[in-house]
Amino acid sequence: MLATLLAFLGACTLIAATPGPSTVLIIRNSMHSRRAGMMTVLGNETGVFLWGAIAAFGLTALLAASQVAYDVMRWVGAAVLVWFGVQALRAARRGAAAEFADRAGAEVTSWRAYRSGLLLNLANPKVGVFAMSFLPQFVPSSAPQLATTLAFAALWAVYEVGWYAVYVWFVGRLKGVLSRAGVRKRLEQVSGTVLVALGIRLAVEH
Predict the structure, then answer these.
(1) Contact assessment for residue 127 and residue 49, using Cβ atoms and an 8 Å cutoff
(2) How many other CB atoms are found less than 10 A from the CB of residue 27?
(3) Taking the model in full, what pTM does it have?
(4) Which of 124, 125, 152, 193 has the fewest CB neighbours in a 10 Å radius?
């Protein structure tokens, strides 16, 4: 089991280190505050666990088997990515990158950040299909299938919380530089463009 856990954590490291939409959103929200960054991480990892749980119950097999269902999810995910990208580009144009700080109260800010991470993750059907193929590889044949898969899904999510917390910390350390209007505007432009491009790619791929 120890060897399995080490192999699993190694695979989780490779997954987390691969840049994707969630990474872009976490870094972008971390520019507003560490709280916003960590709440985005928690939202994203809630999505990771939910996809893992869905995979454990075998429901993602239906998504993988139904081209129509997958395409609908893919288009929804593409729309969500483009929407987040457009929001970033609009913030860059307005020069109002600190959109989280403009909200009244920390609770609203935290919920908005959490919701954005969760929505972005759940809107991507590729995560669900990947979870279905990824998690069962590490479940020993002698172990209870459902319980063990859920445990690995939880471990995957918790591990990524720690991984992305480093991103949030690093962005926070650079806040003095990133808070400059010109730098923040450029980063909003870059993150917005990347998110829109990822959305378009998700929409057109088959």
Answers:
(1) no
(2) 21
(3) 0.77
(4) 193
Provide, for the chain, the percentages of residues in helix, strand and coil under a 3-state DSSP scheme, each rounded to the nearest 5. 85, 0, 15
Provide the pLDDT for residue 90: 79
Instruction: Provide the terminal-to-terminal Cα distance of the chain, rounded to the nearest Å.
Output: 37
Across 177-187, average pLDDT:
65
Instruction: Count the Cβ atoms, other than its own, within 10 Å of residue 3.
Output: 7
Q: Using CB atoms within 10 A of its CB, is residue 2 exposed (0-12), middle (13-18) or buried (19+)?
A: exposed
- Distance of alpha carbon 169 from alpha carbon 165, whole angstroms: 6
Which amino acid is located at 152 in the chain? F
74-88 core/surface letters (b: 16 or more CB in 10 A; e: else):
bebbbebbbbbbebb
Closest of 59, 4, 38 to residue 160, by C-alpha: 38
The type of residue at 206 is H
Identify the pLDDT of residue 193: 80
Q: Which residues contact 184 (CB under 8 A, 6 or more apart)?
A: 31, 97, 178
pLDDT tens digits along 88-122: 777 767 665 444 444 433 443 788 899 999 998 99
Q: What is the pLDDT of residues 154-171, one digit of tens each?
A: 999 999 999 999 999 998
* Residues listed for the chain: 206
More confidently predicted of 28 and 44: 44
82 φ, ψ to 5°? -65, -40
